[in-house]
């Protein structure tokens, strides 16, 4: 049985290859939240780990996966093979770009795609609603019903709310970690937190196979979820453990719903 590299307050971090550690732990989770290597940099660890999607499928029926369109197109056969079905996507819009090419549009976004296995109706979904300044969100609207199961069974109650809230939009603006990151591709807590709250119940367990600086673990702890992370490179695991030991000082990064 692998020994945790760090363990405290409902979070555990393991050092090793997620394809070995997770099966050895035999863990079952409400959600896998993954930020895998996109294979788009010359960083040593930035290589797609073949087989990780099968491992994720043995852990949970729900997967949020960060990545680029190029990455998803290149590996779509592996999502299919592991029976992951696409439910939806969100766009993380950053305040600055991450690309270095000058012959194309300045890239200021990344994607996270939501995949599920089994029946959509068995998914835990805590639909994100936020306060709305739009008066039309106080009016009754006609229900629209979709036949596609992953679009959700839209009930009339959902569309006749008069509570001044609206569904959170799928384009989410959160400042990147530029200038304050512990890890070269660190995700801000503000983009992880809505995904966690939506797909993992309070007190539930989220697994991050590519923990990096432990952002998912910190976001889980701050939002009342348990978390297990695996990181393959010891220098990052070391930084992650240090961060987790100081995590009560972490605050959610700025988030605005575009
Ligand atoms: C995109 S980064 C994740 C960054 C993380 N979301 C954060 O906010 O810090 C991917 C991480 O996966 C790690 N990694 C790559 N292959 C791995 C494997 N097979 N098992 C576990 N970790 C791996 C890399 O060392 C890297 O830190």
Summarize the structure in words.
By secondary structure, the protein is of the alpha/beta class. It has two domains: 6-128 and 168-257, Rossmann fold; 135-167, no CATH class. It is 24% helix and 22% strand. It is built from eight helices and twelve strands. It has a ten-stranded mixed β-sheet, sandwiched between helices. Strand 1 and strand 2 form a beta hairpin. Helix 1 (18-25) packs parallel to helix 2 (52-59) and helix 6 (189-199) packs across helix 7. The N and C termini lie far apart (44 Å). The structure holds S-adenosylmethionine.
Features:
258 residues; alpha/beta; Rossmann fold; 2 domains; 10-stranded mixed sheet; 8 helices; 12 strands; globular; binds S-adenosylmethionine
Topology summary:
Elements: E1 6-8, E2 11-15, H1 18-25, E3 31-34, H2 52-59, E4 62-67, H3 69-74, H4 76-81, E5 85-93, E6 109-116, E7 129-131, H5 156-159, E8 165-167, E9 171-174, H6 189-199, E10 205-208, H7 215-222, E11 226-231, H8 234-245, E12 255-257
Parallel strand pairs: 2-11, 3-4, 3-10, 5-9, 10-11
Antiparallel strand pairs: 1-2, 4-6, 5-6, 7-8, 9-12
S-adenosylmethionine (SAM) binds next to helix 1 and strand 11.
